[in-house]
Design a protein that fits this description.
CATH superfamily: ph1033 like domains
Strand order of the largest sheet: 2-5-4-3-1-6
Distance between the termini: 25 Å
Shape: globular
CATH class: Alpha Beta
Number of domains: 1
Radius of gyration: 14 Å
CATH topology: ph1033 like fold
Largest sheet: 6 strands, mixed
Amino acid sequence: MNYWLVKSEPDVYSWDDLVKDKKTTWDGVRNFQARNNLKAMKKGDLAFFYYSNEGKAIVAIAEVSKEAFPDPKDNNWVAVKLKPKRKLKNPVDLATIKADKRLANMVLVNNSRLSVQPVKAEEFDWILLLSEK
């Protein structure tokens, strides 16, 4: 299993929207590196759901329910389907992530603008522990 982080905004598409919808097409990604990350996602992979401007925090976990397919808005790009897995007990904000030496090499810390990014298993597990505090 691989781990990821996908970014959204609560006023654009929130975690509550995903829970209400039960699934969504994660499309509109227009960055080559992020597109490659979408292509690498496999069914069953888990992705942190992150609010990138308002809140700047990981708030939940989504699951990849369908692997990469042509983006319905532009066939030159790809999309995946996500479904809700669970909300974190407590959000883990960017300041906490940046302050933690165990997460110093996390893509979110070093390339915070990338909208779809890989997360190492140990980073994923550590953030889950941080969310329990």
